[in-house]
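We store chain and fold; example below:
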Amino acid sequence: MEYSADSIYMLDRELRYLSVNEELLRRLGLPREKVLGRKFEELHTAEETREFAAKAREVFETGRVVQQEHYHERLGRFFLRTISPVRDPKTGEVRAITVVGKDITPLKQAEEKLRKSEEEYRSLAENVADILLRIDLKGNCTYISKNVQEETGYTLEEVKKMNIKDILTPESYRTALNRIKMWQGGARSLPPYVVEVKLKDGRIVPFELKTSPIFENGELKGFQIVARNIAERAEATRALQQARAYAESIVETVHEPLLVLDAEMRVISANRAFYELFKVSPEETEKRSLYELGNRQWDIPELRRLLKDVVEKNASFQEYVVVHDFPLIGRRIMMLRARQMRTAAEGKPMILLAIEDVTERQMMETQLKRSIDIQTAIISLLSIPLKYSLEEILKRSLDVVLSISWLGFESRGAIFLFDEKQNALVLKAQRKLPEPLQRTCALVPVGKCLCGKAAATKKIIFADHVDENHETSYEGITPHGHYCVPILSDDKLMGVLNIYVKEGHRREETEEDFLKAIANALALIIARKNFEREQLEFIYRTNELSRGECYLHRSHRAAYNIAAQLMMLGVPGICFTREAPEKVMDAGIPKESIILISSVPLKGFETTDNLQEISMRISEFIKNNRESIVLLDGIEYLMSRFGFDMVYKFLQEKRFNFIDSDAVFLLPVDLAVFSERERALLASEIKIIG
């Protein structure tokens, strides 16, 4: 992309530059940092932006490739833009466009030169006038047409008194006498010939003469001559030859192979690029049918139909793609374009067929798409919220891997985690894994079957069919293959990623690189989740907390710190408080987790002072969020409003909700505000810590 002679760049739906290559930067005359992130309209005129935006909108709406020809005012050159869609691998939605701008100035200039030449030569042909005259056998003029003065400068009276010797150069006069002798010798038909005529102003110009004998009673008496001033034609011929040589030199320098075909699809000519690309000679190409060239690579029914329409309907076509194993050059991707041409004289249709080898460009576009897909997949994987459980993250990761269409994967796979104590792999996530395998592969010893061997060797194990290494089997197993990729962190085994492929699938380096990248990302996620689990266990242990328990904490600050630390590590949490919101957030409690215990509404926060509503909110929260943390700071306030007995009953009922959901209920209180009886009752139901 960076070293392409074409400009290549990518834009999003707002036509903002996402990536550019060096050629585009050269054409814009700007450094990369002045282009990336800016919109198309900021770097181009309003008219150009309007035309380009319409084409881009067509690609976003239809998902089809569109081409646009435009003229670059500053560079003074013509370019052909090819605008291609870039799709979201999950939804198929067109998320961006890739633009390839090709300089077509030489071709446009050649076309313009040829057009102007045709107009000039047509004008010359339409204005040529002929002189009609008669001479006797001695060369004296017996008749002359009126336009003689216009063509020669002599008047009719002057010419009638002249002999051809007087107006021809000596050499031309001898040629004329020789022709007269040939007629006298019995010749019946002679081709036209050219003589040099001396005009009245002294100039000498060529005339083409067509002569025919005049007989009287069978006796040759003289000649009738049609004389055509060919000075302009000769000049036009020289100009045409020069223009043709110029056009041919341009065509020869065009990098695209070109063929000129007649109406029967025979090759009239080909340029040097054609011979060099296909490694053939003119003898193997010219005057032969297009469909017989090489190993009949162009003998395609659809191409035959398109070329027939070019001849019969004066149609044209663009971007017809042929993928073929060509003789001598191997498998290539060719893009064909064709339009009709006509000769000025005969009006016979001819076809200009342009052939572009887009193999490298297609490979580059494919590699670019694959690179984007891989990056998108890894970003999607790393963007999975860490608040989810590790099993849920692994399931979502598996969906990301199996969603990329160009990979030769089946929509089946599994992720195992390594259990060091059992020295085995434990199935944690799967998609469309047959039920027999879900049971037998729930625990796979290291070294057993393909996954176990990948774990033991810490290397990718590939199989294109069910072979002897596929130790785990079941009745009705269908043919398939596998990529079994170890998940490693600093060479430490974390698990194995198992992806199904079709039987006979070819092992590809691109797929392996992608799976390695996914395995590395999974290793980071697993390590992070393991670290979080260890941190959580440390917090629970050091604060003497157990899941499914309710606690009265003597320190408000410590209770807030415990809740904030757990929420920071991904534990779902909710905080009911009488404190000022800013103070609660400063302690580390997220704003969205705060519910104020107040009868006065506060903008931006949910408030309640209804004990029944608080009870319902807590029940709903821990039902939807297992192993969560609930902080209720304001128990003294609630007791002052509803009485100790009602609040105590509320706490008795909540206790069993927390046991069922493995959640922790934390109530910071000042025990001094309670009577001895109340403290005893609270201690009988809820543990006191801190």
The chain has 22 helices and 28 strands. The first strand starts at residue 7 and ends at 12. The first helix runs from residue 22 to 28.
